[in-house]
Automatic annotation (TrEMBL):
Species name: Kibdelosporangium phytohabitans
A Pfam family reported for this protein in Swiss-Prot or TrEMBL: TctA
Name by which UniProt lists this protein: Tripartite tricarboxylate transporter TctA
This protein's record includes keyword Metal-binding: no
Superkingdom in the source lineage: Bacteria
Length: 503
């Protein structure tokens, strides 16, 4: 009861007019910034840091939390409507959300995403209240072999279920891993695949790659085929979810938080891995196999609920351990230090009022975001009425602005369009885009965790499987790889197969 009593006191602080105003400002800024590809919540919070020096710490962090949650809402909007992820957490949403929009179901996709964020955020924040100390203790015990096994599971899972063949999925993954190698080796400091360019020494930003492969590649593909097809505006469709949509979405909404929260809390970091795993899970469990890749609403509902819950898990690690697992958490950690506050095990004792007001403001921000985004779904979907030549020209413009905003360097624009051409070629030859993005996001981290694990074991490969968690994950990977062969061996022959045998 101690936690809930403290939470009630936190609501008393967060619902004061001034702090409520900060929450509204935060969610509005976050939603707007999330819509712009390349900007991101981390940059928004970083830009706001200097102007919050004179603010009360509680109000400043309530605003930051609103920006964090709001940017995840906003990122799904362009991901669904324009195939342009505003945040890496919304990359997976584009796979099913954009085909839904093209079929005239953009409003339903946006509504499913908004409700998914609300449900996932509510459950995730409730788990933050209940399980913060326990999850923090578990996170401390996870080592390099476990992290590498988790990332390998993400690689295998997504490449196994996307595209027309596993070979194409792994080919796409290799492209992403190669892009992820560009820059300085963190352990040796040597340049890799930079071609002598200092601009590439820091590597290529993940958002630039995601926007290039999704938005630029899609725009170039459409431009190459506009003369062959009639360019008609995409219909908006009905503005609300029907009974069938809710029936298909409510289970993914409830499953997503329990995938997203633990991954957000561990230092594997962020919403990328759990959203990929949520997508794979929902695709495996779905009864509507034929719709996947063409606009399955489960592929929007599950990952969006997962992404929102992972944000709560991220805050769990930051508040209880002082361990930032995402860029936003790192900036918020800097903000805590700016006020002379050190997150960690003693934070809940020393700054109890601030922490519980911050947690209470998360519930408030989620309600504000649902109220703001659900009625606006049909309005956002009307973007699709713009004729396709103008629509995709606008996408290229905003993608270019977003890429330039990442570092303010013209080289990023060149990289954007070079990778965009790679995305065009991938579409031409039927390679799925998502494994490449996974390779860029997780490849560098997986490499570091692999090398770390081998260093700890003096180069002995057994060091990768010396923990119970890693063993369980490798067993899951083996089952995942072997399942198609096992299913083929034990599958009953169909009527057509029997006719062929008889002949």
């Amino acid at each position: 009861m101690g936690s809930f009593a403290s939470l009630v006191d936190g609501f008393g602080t967060a619902l004061t007019p001034v702090n409520l105003m900060y929450a509204v400002i935060g969610v509005l800024l976050g939603t707007t910034i999330g819509v712009l590809p390349g900007i991101g919540a981390a940059m928004a919070v970083a830009l706001l840091l200097p102007i919050t020096y004179g603010l009360d710490p509680t109000g400043a962090f309530i605003m930051f939390a609103g920006i964090y949650y709001g940017s995840m809402f906003g990122g799904s909007t362009t991901s669904i409507l324009l195939n342009t992820p505003g945040e890496t957490a919304s990359v997976v949403t584009a796979i099913e959300g954009n085909p839904m929009a093209k079929r005239g179901r953009g409003s339903q996709a946006l509504a499913a995403a908004a409700i998914g964020h609300f449900v996932g955020g509510m459950i995730g924040t409730l788990l933050l209240v209940l399980l913060a100390p326990t999850v923090a203790k578990l996170a401390v015990g996870i080592g390099a072999p476990d992290f590498f096994a988790i990332m390998l599971l993400a690689f295998i899972s997504v490449t196994s279920v996307l595209g027309k063949s596993r070979i194409r999925g792994f080919a796409s993954l290799l492209i992403g891993l190669a892009i992820g190698l560009i820059g300085l080796d963190e352990m040796t400091g040597r340049q890799r695949l930079t071609f002598g360019s200092l601009h590439l020494s820091d590597g290529i930003d993940v958002v630039v790659v995601a926007v290039a492969l999704f938005a630029v590649g899609e725009s170039l593909w459409v431009a190459a085929h506009l003369r062959r097809i009639q360019a008609e505006p995409i219909p908006v469709g009905r503005p609300w979810l029907g009974r069938a949509d809710v029936k298909r979405s409510w289970r993914p909404w409830l499953r997503g938080p329990f995938i997203g929260f633990p991954f957000g809390a561990i230092p594997a970091g962020g919403a990328e891995i759990p959203t990929f795993l949520s997508y794979v899970t929902e695709r495996r469990l779905s009864k509507n196999k034929d719709e996947w890749g063409k606009g399955a609403i489960e592929g929007v509902a599950g990952p969006e609920a997962t992404a929102s819950a992972s944000a709560s898990g991220t805050l769990t690690s930051m508040l209880t351990l002082g361990l930032p697992t995402t860029a936003v958490a790192a900036v918020m950690l800097a903000a805590f230090q700016q006020y002379g506050i050190q997150p960690g095990p003693l934070l809940f004792e020393r700054e109890s009022g601030l922490v519980w007001a911050l947690i209470a403001s998360l519930f408030i921000a989620l309600v504000l975001l649902l109220v703001l985004n659900l009625p606006l779904a049909p309005v956002w979907a009307k973007l699709l009425r713009i004729p396709r030549p103008y629509l995709y020209a606008g996408i290229l413009f905003f993608a270019s602005v977003g890429a330039y905003a990442v570092s303010g360097d013209v080289v990023d624009l060149v990289v954007l369009f070079v990778i965009g051409l790679i995305g065009l070629a991938m579409r031409r030859y039927g390679l799925p885009v998502l494994p490449a993005v996974i390779g860029v996001i997780l490849g560098p981290s997986a490499e570091q965790q692999l090398r770390r694990a081998l260093q700890i074991s003096d180069g002995n490969v057994s060091g990768l499987v010396n923990t119970p968690m890693s063993v369980v994950i490798y067993v899951a990977i083996a089952l995942l790889l072997a399942w198609p062969l096992v299913r083929r061996l034990f599958r009953r022959p169909s009527a057509q197969d029997r006719e062929k045998i008889d002949v």
